[in-house]
Amino acid sequence: MITITCYIDTLHRDELMRLWESVFAYDAAHNRPGLAIDKKLAIADELLFVALFEGRVVGSVMAGYDGHRGWLYSVAVAAGQQQKGLGSALVRHAEGALAQRGCMKINLQIRGGNEAVTAFYESLGYVIEPRVSMGKLLAQNF
Known about the structure:
alpha+beta, Aminopeptidase, globular
């Protein structure tokens, strides 16, 4: 049985970092798993969740909420657990946590050309919106 629970650094860190390294193509310093975890823990908003199977981390979702919009990040499922509904369960878990905080809208970003992930989110009710995503790195913080 798989359970979804709040991330606990002393229990889940190494396995979560390995999961993210296996699932995501990290090509930028600000996306390093250890740094992302540390930055999230510094916020202490309890919106980082892991899925456990037999005590091992097999999935994750990180959410954020700024009082206006919610965000989903780092939805990851281990290769052996994919296509079993775990990704959907993780997203729904994060949606519930955001809804409890008063969130009315959730955003996420997908790298261009990733049609499989786009289709996954569309199956969960997310739609492509006509927006331009912009970003700026603040290098002094990583």
